[in-house]
Amino acid sequence: MILRDTTSSDWAGIWPVVEPVVRAGETYAYARDLTSSQARDLWLERPPGRTVVLTDDGPDAAVLGTAKMGPNRPGPGAHVGTASFMVAEHARGRGVGRRLGEEVVAWHRAQGYRGIQFNAVVETNTVAVSLWRSLGFEVVGTVPGAFRLPDGSYVGLHVMHLDLT
Amino acid sequence: MILRDTTSSDWAGIWPVVEPVVRAGETYAYARDLTSSQARDLWLERPPGRTVVLTDDGPDAAVLGTAKMGPNRPGPGAHVGTASFMVAEHARGRGVGRRLGEEVVAWHRAQGYRGIQFNAVVETNTVAVSLWRSLGFEVVGTVPGAFRLPDGSYVGLHVMHLDLT
After folding, report:
1. Is A32 near chain B, with CB under 8 Å?
2. What is the domain range of residue B159?
């Protein structure tokens, strides 16, 4: 697998990964009817942020997963980063999320961030919660009922944090 | 005191309240060099959000305080609101923050929100923390060191929540 920064021509390969996640409405607080253009504006970070893709080897290899990262807040909060991850449905179980997560942690460390904060991890997204825990993240707190699942039930959103100091 | 929705001509009266708070860098994770134009875009909410001002009586009365409110997240998170408040330096100690806080809670209740979340309350901002607690908010968790004070020290950011269900 190859991990690299995105270029402007990558969106056509990333959107097929992002769209099913957005439409499913189970893991991200994005509008479920988000258009490709809106999603591109959300997902492709500008410096000091960064968006990466993980692909199979080869020049036209499909995108297996993607992550974006950068400061969580401006000004007095810019020393803490944040990130978002999506894994292609066809690539689940291959360690794609872990590879992206490790890259996110390494990048923030190299850039001198003092921590990484996830603002809204859906508590029923147990694969993600377990992965972040295994990378050292802790649940700082859980906002009760802050996420509405497609079946109409309400579940909590974890705030998770990794100390890099 | 009169509380009312902002109009497009209000910014000239609001900016003198907002600017010292932004420049001080002690309570909001906004860039300290934010321009008036950038601050206006941040502060004046569009529907379904709302921005209000509290003024003394009279047609040309100065702005004593201002609050903005609306959904904290899009889509599956839009049933939880959020808000931000600023009180004019010359109006401290007159109950301006409390009046704005009560309005924020009443508005979210009337609009059918299931809760209100503050994402980043600086833990050393004890006046604000006490006020929100007195209105029923609880600290869900505290992200350690997530806010850099002007003296270079790092303090935590509280996530606070009020259940409206």
Report:
1. yes
2. 2-163
Phi then psi for A159, rounded to 5 degrees?
Answer: -95, 120
Q: How far, CA to CA in Å, does A139 sit from each of A26, A135, A144, B139?
A: 19, 12, 13, 14
Which of A28, A117, A146 shows the shortest C-beta gap to B117? A146
SS3 content of chain B, % helix, strand, coil (to 5): 35, 35, 30
Domain holding B87: CATH number? 3.40.630.30
The shortest C-alpha distance from A161 to chain B (Å) reads 7
Chain B partners within 8 Å of A144 (Cβ):
115, 161, 163
* Contact criterion met (CB < 8 Å) for B119 and A119: yes
Which of A35, A38, A41, A80 is the mutation pick for testing B, counting most B CBs within 10 A?
Answer: A80
Chain B segment 117-136 residues within 8 A of A by beta carbon are: 117, 119-120
Angle value at C-alpha B77, between B122 and A15, nearest 5 degrees: 110
Per-residue pLDDT of chain B (165 residues; tens, 9 = 90+): 999 999 889 999 999 999 999 999 999 999 999 999 999 999 999 999 999 999 999 877 899 999 999 999 999 999 999 999 999 999 999 999 999 999 999 999 999 999 999 999 999 999 999 999 999 999 999 999 999 999 999 999 999 999 999
Residue ranges with strand state E in chain B: 2-5, 50-55, 63-71, 80-87, 115-122, 138-148, 154-163
- How many Å apart are CA A14 and CA A21, to the nearest integer? 12
Provide the residue type at A113 as one letter.
Y
Q: Specify the number of domains making up chain A.
A: 1
Question: Which two tokens mark A57?
Answer: 């080897």
Contact check, Cβ <8 Å, B76/A120? no
